[in-house]
Inverse folding.
């Protein structure tokens, strides 16, 4: 890639100091873990009702394309509950993904008798970290769509989560107790196991095995196609209640397992009610604000609506006043209405909550991952998390604008005055979900997030006393004063660097040996280790809007323990639990884009074990103290600031690096440290970030001090990138290349 500049542009650019940004490419996912694995056996329960003893159960290994290999392994049902165990020949599978299949007669849990005809059920699962996989109606209903998504490039885990969510929603299952479908069994005794039993009884009803098989096939097909049930299938499922003798059902189930938790007729009726509410929607461009009418998705720790709100109230309009647009994109709302229109138990997200979402999915690829995989976009997204954002446009400048080009969503965050509030826009061609703002009288889309409780026990719920404006306030005046360049509208606290679009290298700014985190503006010094790795020499101080981490000395049980404090300054940073530091087990963790948490091996390369010559500058060694929860290492609470420092690694929650005052790292040219494996995940330790190493042609480079251009690695010039075809670096300044290109 070469960037072409005119002489005029080059001459103008010569006098400017542009702050360029850098980016890194993420893990591609979707099958990168397909290497062979060791596996001696796979066991579980095969149950519609329980399949008959002696019934064959098969395991098919899958290749890198999720296709069956020539290898399969057989086992049989060994008891009346459907228990099986399958030995894996040679103790090895081609990948961590397998298909399980059972075909045979089963014990009808409604009639108590064995069926006269066979039925086939399937499951598809990741067995890398487990040996137990159950086969049931839930695994069967998700089976086809999981494979469809995985084969199209969706990460297997994401495909599983999305499809299971759709199956659960379609069948009125409100929650699974944290279990995957293959972890649930008819007689497990947990609430989720009891729900499976109730669903299985409902689908059985007074049907024959052939009729059950046909119904499962129809439901599975509709799940695969669009994730919801048609009214005809919903009615057919409800027919399972007809003439059901619950006393007979009770006798039948207890004959299979005397300790089973029997669903009541009321339990089964409740499931039917939930199925009705999940699939029967108000007509005429209005879904109301009952959350049961909307798809939802859990991303990170928060549950979001997976479609735009479409609730017809004063203060809202359809794009071009067309109900057809409301049916596709939802309604557009002014800000005051958006603040009060979410369903009960949900609220309009703050800008910080949007930032949490974006950071979780990866800020450098957030647009692609959050956009729906739909031709409604000029450039389709991958929709990896099921957020399914659509380009619904907006109403601004007195006109409806840009449907098909962008979607903009209100946040609950006001901006500097009573007139403006912040937005989060997704443009069809961007990589990043930037901050933006608009007059509160403008109309944009709404996504709601489920209420949750912060560690300080204060709920984030918008005020219920807000007043929905009258119709007269929903249309902005044509004389409204709006900045002419809407792409440059940012809140005063925004730290995204505005660069020419052809030069965009992602958020982040480097000046000399200082990196600015675009998420909050915090600055971190960094230095290059002898092995070429780039390390921050200050501890991470990222709070995600004062919701994460703790500054030394704060009251952990007090109000807002995540608040800012001067004790987080001077490079000390915050302390975090391991799950928080790693952002739920991501190697990058809470580090900014382009940085990650170092491994034990990377720590070892600069510290070594035993007294050795110090490999980093004195400033690298910081003793921030920590918060002790282990009674075996008294005292409890905040301890030993300026005497020790404990740092998380990316390896596992039990590995950490420790500096102690006695190591002389600060006072002597010798330094030693300890890498230990006896930490607890709930300890509170510091985080130090290291720059990513990326591939460039046949070489590696770090994104902080170097950049890649046309497969070659170049050093940054005073922290900036430049075009090596037309420019050169002289004493840290970018100048024009004086040697003609054709003479090189």
């Amino acid at each position: 890639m070469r960037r072409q500049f005119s002489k005029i542009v080059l001459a103008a650019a010569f006098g400017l100091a542009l702050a360029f940004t850098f980016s890194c490419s993420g893990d591609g996912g979707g099958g990168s873990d397909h290497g062979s694995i060791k596996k001696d056996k796979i066991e579980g329960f095969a149950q519609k009702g329980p399949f008959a003893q002696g019934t064959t159960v098969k395991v098919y290994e899958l290749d890198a394309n999720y296709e069956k290999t020539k290898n399969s392994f057989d086992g049989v049902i060994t008891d009346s509950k459907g228990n099986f165990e399958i030995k894996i020949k040679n103790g090895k599978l081609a990948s961590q993904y397998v298909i399980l299949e059972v075909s045979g007669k089963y014990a009808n849990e409604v009639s108590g008798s064995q069926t006269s005809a066979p039925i086939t059920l399937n499951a598809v699962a990741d067995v890398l970290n487990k040996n137990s996989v159950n086969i049931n109606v839930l695994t069967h209903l998700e089976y086809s769509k999981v494979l469809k998504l995985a084969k199209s490039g969706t990460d297997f885990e994401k495909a599983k989560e999305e499809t299971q969510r759709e199956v659960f929603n379609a069948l009125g299952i409100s929650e699974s107790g944290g279990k995957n479908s293959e972890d649930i069994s008819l007689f497990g005794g947990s609430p989720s196991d009891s729900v499976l039993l109730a669903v299985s009884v409902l689908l059985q009803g007074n049907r024959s095995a052939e009729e059950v098989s046909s119904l499962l096939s129809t439901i599975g097909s509709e799940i695969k196609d669009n994730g919801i049930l048609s009214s005809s299938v919903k009615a057919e499922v409800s027919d399972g209640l007809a003439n059901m003798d619950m006393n007979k059902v009770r006798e039948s189930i207890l004959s299979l397992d005397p300790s089973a938790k029997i669903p009541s007729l009321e339990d089964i009726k409740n499931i039917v009610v939930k199925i009705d509410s999940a699939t029967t929607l108000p007509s005429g461009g209005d879904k109301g604000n009952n959350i049961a009418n909307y798809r939802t998705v859990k991303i990170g720790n928060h549950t979001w609506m997976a479609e735009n709100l479409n609730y017809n109230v004063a203060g809202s309009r359809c794009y071009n006043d067309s109900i057809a647009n409301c049916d596709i994109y939802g309604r557009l709302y002014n800000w005051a209405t958006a603040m009060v229109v979410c369903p009960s138990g949900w609220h309009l997200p703050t800008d910080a909550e949007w930032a949490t979402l974006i950071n979780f999915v990866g800020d450098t690829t957030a647009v692609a991952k959050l956009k729906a995989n739909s031709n409604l976009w000029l450039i389709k997204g991958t929709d990896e998390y099921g957020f399914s954002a659509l380009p619904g446009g907006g109403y601004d400048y007195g006109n409806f604008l840009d449907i098909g080009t962008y979607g903009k969503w209100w946040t609950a965050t006001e901006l500097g005055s009573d007139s403006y509030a912040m937005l989060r826009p997704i443009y069809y061609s961007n990589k990043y979900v930037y901050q933006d703002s608009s007059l509160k009288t403008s109309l944009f889309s709404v996504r709601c997030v489920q209420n949750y409780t912060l560690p300080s026990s204060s709920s984030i719920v918008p005020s219920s006393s807000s007043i929905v404006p009258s119709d007269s306030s929903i249309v902005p005046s044509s004389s409204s004063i709006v900045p002419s360049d809407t792409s440059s509208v940012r809140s005063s606290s925004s730290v995204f660097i505005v660069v020419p679009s052809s030069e965009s290298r992602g958020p982040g700014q480097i000046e000399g040996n200082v990196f600015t985190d675009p998420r909050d503006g915090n600055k971190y010094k960094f230095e290059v280790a002898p092995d070429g790795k780039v390390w921050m020499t200050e501890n991470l101080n990222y709070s995600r809007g004062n919701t994460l981490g703790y500054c030394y000395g704060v009251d952990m049980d007090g109000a807002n323990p995540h608040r800012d404090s001067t004790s987080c300054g001077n490079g000390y940073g915050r302390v975090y639990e391991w799950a928080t530091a790693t952002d739920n087990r991501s190697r990058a963790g809470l580090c900014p884009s382009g940085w990650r948490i170092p491994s034990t091996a990377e720590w070892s390369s600069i510290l070594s074990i035993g007294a050795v010559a110090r490999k980093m500058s004195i400033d690298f060694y910081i003793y921030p103290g920590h918060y002790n929860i282990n009674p075996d290492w008294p005292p409890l609470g905040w301890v030993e600031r300026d005497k020790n420092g404990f740092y998380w690694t990316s390896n596992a929650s039990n590995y950490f690096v420790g500096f102690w005052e006695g190591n002389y790292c600060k006072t002597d040219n010798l330094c030693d440290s300890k890498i230990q494996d006896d930490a607890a995940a709930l300890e509170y330790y510091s985080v130090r970030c290291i720059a990513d190493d990326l591939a460039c042609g046949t070489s590696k480079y770090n994104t902080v001090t170097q950049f890649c251009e046309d497969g070659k690695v170049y050093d940054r010039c005073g922290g900036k990138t430049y075009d090596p075809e037309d420019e050169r670096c002289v004493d840290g300044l970018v100048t024009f290349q004086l040697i003609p290109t054709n003479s090189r």
Notes: The two ends are 18 Å apart (CA to CA). The CA atoms of residues 25 and 130 lie 30 Å apart. Residues 1-33, 279-284, 454-507, 738-744 have pLDDT under 50 and may be disordered. Residues 542-688 form one domain.
